[in-house]
Amino acid sequence: MVRGVVDGGAPRIDAARLLSRLEELGRIGDTQDGGCSRLALSDEDRQGRDLVVTWMRDLDLDVSIDKIGNVVAVLPGREDGPPVMCGSHIDTVATGGIYDGNLGVLGGLEVLETIVTEGITPHRAMAVAFFTDEEGARFAPVMLGSLVYAGGMSVEDAYDLVGIDGARLGEELKRIGYLGAAPCPGLAPHAYVEMHIEQGPVLESHGDMIGAVTGVQGISWQELVLTGQLNHAGTTPMAYRHDAGFAAAAIAVAARDIATGLGGDQVATVGKCDLGPDLVNVVAGKAALTLDLRNTDGLVLADAERQIAEAVDQIATKEGISVARRQLARFKPVDFDARVVDLVESTARAHGYRVRRLPSGAGHDAQMLSRLCPAGMVFVPSRAGISHNPAEFTTPEQIEAGANVLLDVMLGLAEDDL
Ligand code: GLV
Ligand code: MN
Ligand code: MN
Question: What would the pLDDT profile of 351-377 be if each residue is shown by its tens digit?
Fold first, then answer.
């Protein structure tokens, strides 16, 4: 049973150090509007990785890079054995903020630095990791590095993935110097805890400081390539058209209607749509669009997939176009370990913070690590629930609170049994 560790003399993280690192890392890929673009395995990702690895080595952590480019930095404990691990990702979407993922990695590094500075040698080893291509924005699926770490995909299959720019993942990994030697699947940690911004409005709207995350909703990504007939925009009567652009728009509308009709947690997004030839006076002969469906209830998610598949068939038949489908990601909803969720909640309460249990709407590396060990997450609020947007923001006080909760949860897990 993990004991509470909050008392008068308990160690505390250095918020100024953590914030200055967040800002420094955020300057790599700076989009000049407060945001950050470090797509996985890009030159900016490499620079970000180099900086974080430098900080890890400065702390004398034992840094290893695995065959998919995940980086794990270990602080030895008093006894051998698997570490208590924290971490997240440092790749971003192209319109990212500076907090998504980065906070979990730098917050974890701050936890380890605090422990080192305090002269504490924990019973169990501790580790902070960053996982490759969590966002999946360049190379689908989402959470790729942690999926491979957990044994859910082979490194060979991962190397063969082709990005939205036509690049092959294996070549990009080698090009940026992060194709490491450590084996995949990786070592199962003793436990895994990830701090992250909520990326939604729940904590802020309730005035809560900390979220004890109960799990992550299921996710379904697919790509649809629609083939119609290129034709002249002026001369082709409406009844003669096989318009891939129109069909793509109709699918986006159907996805919205189906999600709204199912209600509850169901969400549906057409976030990417490329028309060919993409010209003002040509009826589109091609459309390639993505569908992102999520729900905490796996059965409702499957129902949403079925309804959308039917709608796509109907739209295609009516418009006289063909459809090729490709599944990009499919992960079931995940429940985190109840003991870790309880520990996050009780630790936050012991600090005097308002805490709420909630599921995560976004995907996280923690859901992949939960295949290997007890896992959970610490959420801090996101201003106005905005994320994947340069306006993403969490206050310094909220960041400090989250990192101190992470510190005590990590120390508790390192010293005691769950
Ligand atoms: C990425 O983390 C996502 O949830 O899309
Ligand atoms: Mn993230
Ligand atoms: Mn993200």
Answer: 999 999 999 999 999 999 999 999 999
Alpha-carbon distances of 86 from 39, 70, 113, 174, 190, rounded to whole Å: 22, 13, 13, 26, 11
What's the pTM? 0.96
Ligand 1 pocket residue status of 180, Cβ below 6 Å: no
Q: Helix 298-319 and helix 244-262: axis angle, to 10°?
A: 150
- What 8-state DSSP symbol labels residue 140? S
Bridge partners for 276 per DSSP: 286
- Whether 91 is in the pocket of ligand 1, judged by its Cβ within 6 Å, is no
Nearest ligand to the CA atom of 143: 1
User: Does 141 sit behind a cis peptide bond, omega within 30 degrees of 0 on the bond before it?
Assistant: yes
Distance of alpha carbon 341 from alpha carbon 215, whole angstroms: 9
Distance (Å) from CA 411 to ligand 2 centroid: 23
Radius of gyration of the chain (CA): 22
Nearest-10 crossing angle of helices 15-26, 396-415: 110
Give percent above pLDDT 90 in the chain. Answer: 97
The answer to whether the CB of 304 falls within 8 A of the CB of 280 is: no
What are the b/e assignments for 158-168, b being 16+ CB within 10 Å? bbebebeeebe
Is the CB of residue 366 below 6 angstroms from any atom belonging to ligand 1? no
- Label residue 2 by pLDDT band (50, 70, 90): low
In the reported structure, the alpha carbon of residue 252 is separated from the centroid of ligand 2 by a whole-number distance in angstroms of 25
CA-based nearest residue to 378, from 207, 194, 217, 200: 194
Cβ < 5 A residues, ion ligand 2: 100-101
Pocket test for ligand 1, best of 93, 100, 102, 135 (most atoms within 8 A of CB): 135
SS3 194: strand
Cβ of 142 below 6 Å from ligand 1: yes
